[in-house]
Amino acid sequence: MITFVDTNVLLDVFLPDAEWGEKSVVSLERAFQEGSMVINEIIYAELAPQFGEKDLLDTQLGRLGIRTLPLDQEAAFRAGLAWKEYRDAGGRKNRILADFLIGAHALIRAERLLTRDRGFYKKYFGSLQVIYA
User: Fold this and answer.
1) Structural element, H or E, at residue 37
2) What are phi and psi for residue 130, nearest 5 degrees?
C-alpha cells in the first residue's frame, strides 16, 4: 500500500511537535509497516526551510523510507479543476493551489493520504482514502 504523506505530519516529527509528534510518529510507523511512503516536490519544498541543506533533508527522508514522486500533468490538471470548484464555491485564498496539487497527486499515485488536515481533502477528493495522524 502506498501512503502519500502530508507536510504537517512530517513537520510534527522533524521539529518535533509536543502535541502531535508522537501521534505522527506512530502513524508513519504504521504506514511504513503497511507498504511504502511518498511525497512530491511541493512537500519537499515545504520541508526544505527546516533543514537548510539538501543532503540533510534527503538523509532524513531516506531514514523514514520516504521517496519523492514527480508531479505529473494528470495530477496538475485534476488539482486545477478541484481548485476551480473551490473558488467557484466562494473559497478564499486561505487554501492555496499547493494543497490541491497534494490532494490530486495523492489520489492518482497512492492508495491513501496521511495528514492532520481534517475535512478539506475528503471534500475535494472524495474518493481519496484519508487517514489522520
Assistant:
1) strand 36-39
2) -110, 130
Residue 111 Cα distances to 42, 59, 96, 107, angstroms: 19, 25, 23, 7
Give the residue with greater pLDDT, 33 vs 16. Answer: 33
Give the residue extent of every domain in the chain.
6-132
Bridge partners (DSSP) of residue 114 are 5, 131
What pLDDT digit, counting tens, does each position of 43-85 carry? Answer: 999 999 999 899 999 999 999 999 999 999 999 999 999 999 9
Here the cell at position 105 is: 497527486
Residue carrying the nine cell digits 495528514: 115
Strand ranges across the sheet with 129-132: 66-68, 36-39, 2-5, 112-115, 129-132
Fold of the domain spanning 6-132: Rossmann fold (3.40.50)
DSSP state, residue 88: H
| In contact, 30 and 131? CB cutoff 8 Å | no
pTM of the model: 0.93
Question: Which residue matches cell numbers 475535494?
Answer: 124
